[in-house]
Each structure stands twice: as C-alpha cells, then as structure tokens.
Amino acid sequence: MRWLLATTLLLSACTQPKAQSPDSSAPKAADQASEQDITPPSDDDEPLTWRTLNVGETAVEYATIGEPAEGRPVLLALPPGPQTREMVVAGIEKWATPMQEAGWFVLSPISPEGLFFTDSAELLPGFLDAAAKTHGIPTEGLLLFGMSNGGLSAFSVALAEPNRFRAIVTIPGRPTDDDLGKVSALASMPVAIVVGADDDPFWITGAESTKRALEGAGGSVEVRMLPDTGHAAHVDIDWDTFRGLFGL
After folding, report:
1. Exposed site from 36, 81, 86, 144, fewest CB < 10 Å?
2. Is 18 contained in some domain?
3. pLDDT tens sequence across 75-115
4. Sheet with 74-78: strands ordered across
5. Is 100 within the bounds of a domain?
C-alpha cells in the first residue's frame, strides 16, 4: 500500500516553518521528496476522487473520500511536507477505506502556492465556503486533521476561523511561535496532538507548550507521546485510534 511510503516522504519533505525562533526551528529538509520515493497517484485511485474548485482566481485541486450525508462527519485533512498531490495521498490514504466505510466525507486540498500556514493560508476559508456550496456540506462543525506541515496549517486555519471546527487532531502538529499566544481561541474544542518521543524537539516542545497554553485557558487537550517513534508517528495510529482521537 502506498501509505507505507509516507514514512520516507515525511522524513524527506518536511520544510522549515517561517517566523520561528532559532531555538525552536524545525529540522531542515528538502522542499520536495525525491522522485524515486514517490509513486504518483492515478485518477482511478479509489477511494480518493480528485476534484478542482476555484477560490477567487485560484484553482485548488483536492481529493475527496466518500459522499456527504446529513449527520455524518466532515473532515478537512491538510497534508504534510510540501503539501503537493503526492503528500495528500501520503497523509490520508492509510485511513481512506475505513473513512469511506464509516460514512465520513473527507476533503484534502493541495496547496496551490507554498504552504497552507504561510503563502496559501488565506485560501482555506474560501475553499471551505466553495466546498460547502459544491458538496452541500456545513460551514461549521467540521473535524480538522493535519500531519506535520499540515499540523502547523491546521492550527493556522483553526485560529483564523475557530467557529468552523469542533475538534482538531494533528500527527504531529503545533502552532507556530507567532500563533502560540493565540491558542486560547481554541479552548472550546477538544485538541489532540500525537508526536513521536524521538521526533525533533521542535515538535515535542511545541506540543507541550500548546498543552500548557490550552489548559491555562481552560481548554481540553491531549498530547500522546509515542515511545520509540520519530516524525512518522501516523504509522502507529490505526483507524480505531484515529477516530477515537476525535472523540468518535
């Protein structure tokens, strides 16, 4: 299964976040995973379906899983690394089949420029508005998931529009240093962060700082530290655990 390639992809494609202090900077790595590490997804790669939405003058390509239905979870999944098409597959394919079988509707966009917590940050609210009209999904009460750079992106969009989401899970993830002081805005929703105990300190200390900040604001946050695990902590998360992190 191609999701097994995510371990290599994450280790080779994690980019350094902007606006971090020197002591908390993420490990430097290539902006793109090498071609030999990637098997490009095909358009008939079930259960992912590839679509395009226009957000203003920008075309945003995205994958969906399942079909929307009233009362069923809707998940925005933000991909790791350079947030390309390959990274969308790496970020969600492991749980794609059980997501579909459980009746979830999943949207996972490609960042059209840069990353979703920097260059393309302003596109996500418009993307969700366009997706709501196209797919008939709600604009609020969404589940939010991000992996690695997708985890940074998840906190970015949640802090920009916290009313859209009801739970956040990152594997791993954290706010940027600039956003850490704003996390009290997320105190009304459950937050779960999974991080490998052997990961770079950027992710470990960031998860711990986020926990302290959210708990200080009266929020509910779980930091799950996986022993003997590095950056690709998702490998040890099965479907039941993933779903349970959202409280479902």
Report:
1. 36
2. no
3. 999 999 999 999 999 999 999 999 999 999 999 999 999 99
4. 48-55, 58-65, 105-109, 74-78, 142-146, 165-170, 191-196, 221-226
5. yes
